[in-house]
Amino acid sequence: MLAVDKDTFQPEVLEAQGFVLVDFWSDGCEPCKALMPDVEELAAKYEGKVKFVKLNTTAARRLAISQKVLGLPTISLYKDGEKIEEVTKDDATRGNIEAMIQKHVG
């Protein structure tokens, strides 16, 4: 799973072709850290179909706000650089993340 920052988000996510799933998290977000192993397992499962990246919003607050990330954890699915769906806060569960992927990617 690729870690991106405010400098690499644009080329890795917004300029990428196909599906990119972004895990927005922060150092102080315990639910984010608890969810990370599930997201990494999904990254392995969907390798080749979806690119998985994670962004620590602690050092990229303006970027997070520009992507309309208002609460954490937020897992967003992008297609060809456009956000198409996201799950956030209590809805950010492994089941809901996988359902979102399957809905769009199959």
UniProtKB/TrEMBL annotation:
<keyword id="KW-0249">Electron transport</keyword>
<dbReference type="InterPro" id="IPR017937">
    <property type="entry name" value="Thioredoxin_CS"/>
</dbReference>
<feature type="active site" description="Nucleophile">
    <location>
        <position position="32"/>
    </location>
</feature>
<feature type="disulfide bond" description="Redox-active">
    <location>
        <begin position="29"/>
        <end position="32"/>
    </location>
</feature>
<feature type="domain" description="Thioredoxin">
    <location>
        <begin position="1"/>
        <end position="106"/>
    </location>
</feature>
<dbReference type="InterPro" id="IPR005746">
    <property type="entry name" value="Thioredoxin"/>
</dbReference>
<feature type="active site" description="Nucleophile">
    <location>
        <position position="29"/>
    </location>
</feature>
<dbReference type="GO" id="GO:0005737">
    <property type="term" value="C:cytoplasm"/>
</dbReference>
<feature type="site" description="Contributes to redox potential value">
    <location>
        <position position="30"/>
    </location>
</feature>
<dbReference type="InterPro" id="IPR036249">
    <property type="entry name" value="Thioredoxin-like_sf"/>
</dbReference>
<comment type="similarity">
    <text>Belongs to the thioredoxin family.</text>
</comment>
<keyword id="KW-0813">Transport</keyword>
<keyword id="KW-0676">Redox-active center</keyword>
<protein>
    <recommendedName>
        <fullName>Thioredoxin</fullName>
    </recommendedName>
</protein>
<dbReference type="Pfam" id="PF00085">
    <property type="entry name" value="Thioredoxin"/>
</dbReference>
<feature type="site" description="Deprotonates C-terminal active site Cys">
    <location>
        <position position="23"/>
    </location>
</feature>
<keyword id="KW-1015">Disulfide bond</keyword>
<dbReference type="InterPro" id="IPR013766">
    <property type="entry name" value="Thioredoxin_domain"/>
</dbReference>
<feature type="site" description="Contributes to redox potential value">
    <location>
        <position position="31"/>
    </location>
</feature>
<dbReference type="GO" id="GO:0015035">
    <property type="term" value="F:protein-disulfide reductase activity"/>
</dbReference>
